[in-house]
Amino acid sequence: xxxxxxxxxxxxxxxxxxxxxxxxxxxxxxxxxxxxxxxxxxxxxxxxxxxxxxxxxxxxxxxxxxxxxxxxxxxxxxxxxxxxxxxx
Length: 88
Prior knowledge:
Number of helices: 4
Oligomer: single chain
Number of strands: 3
Strand order of the largest sheet: 1-2-3
Number of domains: 1
């Protein structure tokens, strides 16, 4: 579901219990396909990398906030910045 946080449009994703139990790349990829099926506007490289980062490294968070206004980065860059790449 799209929400507004800090004046910015953000996609709030609530992972399933199965995705929480299986923080692997294959589960992350399957979950991302489901997100895009439900919210096609989310299909951007930056949001994909944020999703994968959360799926692999923050599976127990209640919600994962994916922000289209954040710059895209490699998965390594996104992970290094705790799933939230900074502008500039």
